[in-house]
Protein: ABC transporter related
Amino acid sequence: MSQQQKSKQSPHPLVRLMKYGRRYRVLIWQAVTCSIFNKIFDLAPPALIGAAVDVVVQRQDSIIAKLGITDIFGQLLFLSVLSALVWGLESLFQYTYERLWRNLAQNIQHDLRLDAYSHIQDLELAYFEDRSTGTLLSILNDDVNQLERFLDIGANEILQVITTVIIISGAFFILTPNTAWMAMLPIPFILWGSIAFQNLLAPRYGDVREKVSLLNSRLANNLSGITTIKSYTTERYEIERLRVDSEAYRQSNQRAIKLSAAFVPLIRIIILAGFTAILLFGGMEVVEGRLAVGTYSVLVFLTQRLLWPLTRLGQTLDLYQRAMASTNRVMNLLDTPIAIHSGNIALPVSTIKGEIVLDNISFAYQERYPVIENLSLHIPAGKTIAIVGSTGSGKSTLVKLLLRLYEVQRGRITLDGIDINDIILYDLRRGIGLVSQDVFLFHGSVRENIAYGSPDATIDDIMMAAKAAEAHEFIIKLPQGYDTIVGERGQKLSGGQRQRISIARAILKDPPILILDEATSAVDNETEAAIARSLEKITQNRTTIAIAHRLSTIRHAECIYVLEYGQIVERGTHEELLEKEGIYANLWRVQTGIRQLGLTH
Structure:
């Protein structure tokens, strides 16, 4: 289904936004009420000026005199006190509506950003395969902020324009029904022009949001890969690529600006027609005695107060269209269905024994050939097994299926006899510790990274885990020890140091099931030996799945499975597999440089 078809089927973005903001309906109504009352009192001064003119001209026959105040000074004093009251109430309601709208904008953008991010975390990994980090960052930051700006300013502007039109139109038809139509004449043209501009601007601002998304994606990607850019001396190439994306964003904005900038000048011309009509024909009504001077003054002021604010519709419309384009993008993200749902069977960590059964499972990534096909495997509780195989054989995919980062398409996986689809997702993942070849450390201290996932851990617990991972010695030599900042993605540490912190993190989690996914693939021999010693200690009495290219790291596993093209082709202990002289034996000879099978023992 195309994006246009989706947009036609989905509700208007303003409807979607109002539906999302239902929890704030009390705050919304309070803000709306204060905006309306502020505008009512803001429109009172022209009436007070007209009344003052009426006092000066009509004196004892003025409107105020009919209230019982015959003294001219008393009439003017009454108008002065009334003016002070009106101005005070206008200021009070302005202060209140600004606070309410701004707080509403802050609350909604805060909730929307958290809800959108929370939803992203619940999406399966397949969702991220076709989307860049920059695109998602653009939605979470730029689009949410754009919506905040509209709620801050634009919503109040729209309400006050509507209030102005209703009140002044009513006043015109009450005071001078004969000439009221002259002031009202431009309004249908202004509204028609506004709607026409809105329809023309909507796709242009949608394109602007897409272009800024691509630009953010380029910047995020380049900043993540700055080392590669420098090492391949592609700085000029990347600047040129960024220039192209930035130019596309600039051009997209210019197309929108070209149209939106034309709105105010055109509206001014339409307003001029209404203003001059009242000025001319209303004046003639006064000369001919059919209209009081004070009423004429009110009409002239009200015409200006009615029509002139409509020129701001251009800016308000600009804010509105940008906000609606952003709302669509954020709401589309929130409406993205979650493919992997949690089960409802609780399985606390303390109750997990760790027996895993893969029963005839098959899996393929989107529009690709099967990575795993009809695979069955039994992993006894508390045992250490190893999985080896060439690149692309499906080893790491098995890890993702066990963690339910992807769903098996046929067959099933059970943990302690329970289908993992039926287990509460949090319990399942809490019971599995993963040490991956691609170690991710967060920007923060060593202590914080080891304790990640174990927020209640004490410094003694953290140090104990670090010692078990043989990381304590290098940590205490760092400038601030356990409080040393590791940098983004742990860039201040070596690969081996990052790996040992990752192992310490898994040890501290103390899971009944441990998965080692190429845990020593990117370290030197000395570090590998240190990691091997720590792994030997922590794998005791827990189910361990070791995935490795380096066969020397898994030769002591109780059972080794050889995976090729998503199927198990060999199984057995290290010695048994060498005797078979199959794929495993060939891999062993290649890695050890031994040509004769008899020399492997």
User: Anything to note?
Assistant: Residues 1-8, 595-601 have pLDDT under 50 and may be disordered. The beta strands are 356-363, 372-379, 384-388, 410-415, 418-419, 432-436, 513-517, 543-547, 559-564, 567-572.
